[in-house]
Amino acid sequence: MTDQIAQNSQEVRPSPLSTAAIRAVILDDNAVDRRRIQRLCREADIEISFTEVSTIAEFASKIDQAVYDLFFLDYRLVQGDGLIALEMLKRHPNQKRAASIMVAGEGQIQVAIDAMKAGCRDFLIKDMMGPDMMSRAVLGALSRSAAAPEEPQEPSALQVALARFAIGSGAEMRTILSSMLRHTRGLRHKAVSPDPILPEDLDRLEANSTRLWEFLEEFQSYLAGFNSEKRRLH
């Protein structure tokens, strides 16, 4: 009996949503940015086993060697870009269930739109990355990937409309909010004013912008859940 229990326990594989099970690859040619992603995941209490690569060639080699749960893809590389890596993942038989997060700089809104259209589960703007946003992006991307069907299905008109907002307007709004938050924080550090109300106004502006960002994150999660429930009912 004991031997049978031990054998069964060895056969049970952890869920991809269990943070202890997350195996991730960071594709970025900047070592500082690779370390920053790992640090933010630690600060968010997400346990991830990381593999680092800096080129498309290294990336291709790694995805041939093992199955991963999550990929952080930096868009701007010395040779190639993150969209090339994303296409490689989609075509690779071992990585079709993996979640991917595109990491882009401010102002690269078209990159985010193209990445989401191409199958990325989420994206991060470098200037906005923090522990909370990292946590939402990682867990949200893994959840959406787990809920996705094995084979693509024809979307309904409502799903198309929602997706257009989430990919287009939603992504653009997040980029605008990223810029607003950065400038607000800059004003707080630079502004010298006798008006005691100014710091409170800046606090409120930052808090409201953050809440709006969180709403957009929740809306994207809702869209993924809506798609999953519709598939279950049909």
Automatic annotation (TrEMBL):
<dbReference type="Pfam" id="PF00072">
    <property type="entry name" value="Response_reg"/>
</dbReference>
<feature type="modified residue" description="4-aspartylphosphate">
    <location>
        <position position="74"/>
    </location>
</feature>
<dbReference type="InterPro" id="IPR001789">
    <property type="entry name" value="Sig_transdc_resp-reg_receiver"/>
</dbReference>
<protein>
    <submittedName>
        <fullName>Response regulator</fullName>
    </submittedName>
</protein>
<dbReference type="GO" id="GO:0000160">
    <property type="term" value="P:phosphorelay signal transduction system"/>
</dbReference>
<feature type="domain" description="Response regulatory">
    <location>
        <begin position="23"/>
        <end position="141"/>
    </location>
</feature>
<dbReference type="InterPro" id="IPR011006">
    <property type="entry name" value="CheY-like_superfamily"/>
</dbReference>
<keyword id="KW-0597">Phosphoprotein</keyword>
